[in-house]
Design a protein that fits this description.
The protein is of the alpha/beta class and about 300 residues long. It has helices at about 15-20, 60-65, 110-115, 150-165, 190-195, 240-255, 285-290, 295-300, and strands at about 35-45, 50-60, 75-80, 85-90, 100-105, 120-130, 140-150, 170-180, 200-205, 215, 235-240, 260-265, 280, 285, 290-295. Strands 10-9-8-7-11-12-15 form a seven-stranded mixed β-sheet, sandwiched between helices. A six-stranded antiparallel β-sheet has the order 4-3-6-1-2-5. The longest helix is centred in the last third of the chain and has 14 residues, at about 240-255. The protein is globular, with a radius of gyration of 20 Å.
Length: about 300
């Protein structure tokens, strides 16, 4: 009998028979041995907005759970059995060995199916894939984190990293913008980041509602609220590609070298292995050579943004 908790066509993630079987995640029998899929249970689902949810996944096998590791900026291939895969940036702390956090927007076939899943359902992940933010190189310097909209998801990993090694960094500022207040994500962590992690957080929206009391305008307006030492500052920028041009151009005018500005082109990901060629920019595979690039490299990648 079909479990009515998951009443959409295709493989039923919440169905008990699936929990007792070992499906061929990622069709492992047909791919290279190193393309390992981790079977995961959804342990918690946190609604963040109308279109975004935070999924906490726990790798089922204890040994695999202990061995799994990643770096800030890397991504996973998330498989929803019967529906396919989607590339998702990792949004949790590298030090967290208990579960993986993925902030997901309902935007396509795979993510729409995932949004119907409940706690206890099974999915799989492959990875991690891609390059990462050079957090060690930033030690002893100021760090400027800039996110637009869903761009806060991949920025959580470097935020957690900085919190775990807070004495290795100087001033840390975080500029976050969204179109509307209702589209701001992880608002419940804002006070923690400010008071516990000692991060100078500034927020702004383009279209305020009646309850909004903060700044209104474009995210570049927030540069007026902070002091930047361009000779000793590293910047990480995540968000829609159109934002990169405005934000990184502004950072360049402030004197921050392009090789100390880092952006993530994770929205171009598809297979994560450089096989489908859908992420190619010129001769560069952004899933293999990226998704993290310094802005100098991005400027030399035709049509990257």
């Amino acid at each position: 009998m079909r479990d009515l908790r998951f009443n959409i066509p295709g493989e039923d993630l919440n169905r008990e028979p699936f929990a007792s079987t070992s499906p061929d995640f990622g069709k492992k029998s047909e791919v290279m041995v190193t393309d390992h899929g981790y079977k995961c249970r959804i342990t918690n689902i946190v609604p963040l907005s109308e279109h975004e949810k935070l999924f906490q996944l726990r790798i089922v096998d204890p040994r695999e759970r202990e061995l799994f590791n990643f770096r800030p900026g890397q991504f996973l291939m998330l498989e929803v059995p019967g529906y396919g895969e989607a590339p998702i940036s990792i949004s949790s702390a590298t030090s967290n060995r208990e579960f993986i956090e993925l902030c997901i927007r309902k935007a396509g076939h795979v993510t729409s199916a995932l949004f119907e899943a409940k706690q206890g359902a099974f999915v799989a992940v492959r990875g991690p894939f891609g390059t990462s933010f050079p957090m060690e190189s930033m030690q002893g310097s100021d760090v400027l984190l800039i996110a637009g909209g869903l761009g806060i998801a991949p920025l959580r990993a470097p935020l957690f990293w900085i919190n775990d090694h807070r004495d290795h960094y100087r001033n840390v500022s975080f500029l976050y913008g969204a179109k509307e207040p209702s589209q701001m994500l992880f608002t419940y962590q804002f006070e923690e980041w400010k008071t516990v992690s000692h991060i100078d957080l500034h927020t702004i929206v383009e279209k305020p509602d009646e309850q909004w009391t903060g700044r209104t305008g474009m995210i570049t307006s927030l540069f007026d609220d902070i002091t930047i030492d361009p000779k000793n500052t590293w910047a990480i920028v995540c968000g829609p590609p159109v934002m990169f041009k405005f934000v990184c151009t502004h950072l360049d005018k402030l004197g921050i070298p392009m090789n100390r500005m880092f952006v993530s082109l994770e929205r171009r990901m598809h297979c994560g292995m450089g096989k489908c060629c859908r992420c190619m920019v010129g001769s560069t595979f952004t899933c293999l050579d990226g998704p993290v690039f310094d802005y100098w490299s991005v400027m030399n990648l035709k049509e990257a943004i």
